[in-house]
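Whether sequence alone determines local backbone shape is best considered at the level of individual chains. The sequence in question and its structure tokens are set out directly beneath this paragraph.

***
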Amino acid sequence: MMINIAICDDERIFLEQLEKTIRFVAKELRLVVMVTQYSHGLELLKHQKKHQLFFLDIDMPDVTGFYIAEKLMKNEQAKVVLVTNHRSKVFDAFKYNVFRFIPKPIEAQKIAEVLTSYDAELEKAFVLVYNAFLDARLRLKYEDIEYVEAFDKKVSISAKNELYEHRGNMKWWLNELDLSLAFYQVHRSYIVNFAKVKRVDASYCHMSNGQKVPIAIRKRKKVIAQFEAYIMRKMSE
């Protein structure tokens, strides 16, 4: 999977050096990257949705790296790496929930640590599934899953109005998915993603795609309570 990286600094020479180092390290790690340079922080913010990983210089004249990092906190997909000459500022970086902090001058080893850690996080966000129509194995984002259904010793995953197959059983999925967040087992054979549920009644979870997932009779009250708790939690974020 390609990693889209944005690098932002007011010094053109540093931008060129940083991009060169990132590309060199990515090649060594066999990672595919796309790197885009920005010399102005506000310009980066306009295009933030194009990128996943952000290298920001803290000390820029127009807007600081801290300012950009604060704005990016609203973007759940963004991972911020702050770069600076001043090691003392590392303590200020913690409140912006940054992914990493790198001192200048940039070392290839530090870039390697960032890319390796980020790639590991990406792996956790995806599961390998099979699409019968395409006759191909694909990487599927967990957040795109609508529901998981177990039947005939197989597991079917509904995501983006497509069905996928997986060799794991329901026990595997219960361990794999973060049931403390959006996912919940509503039936012995079903796990739903509350983020994809439009409403819940006594018998079904009505999904945003129009499908209905059955709720076990003994789980009705618990499912409704858990869905309401999920909605309240999202409203308070």
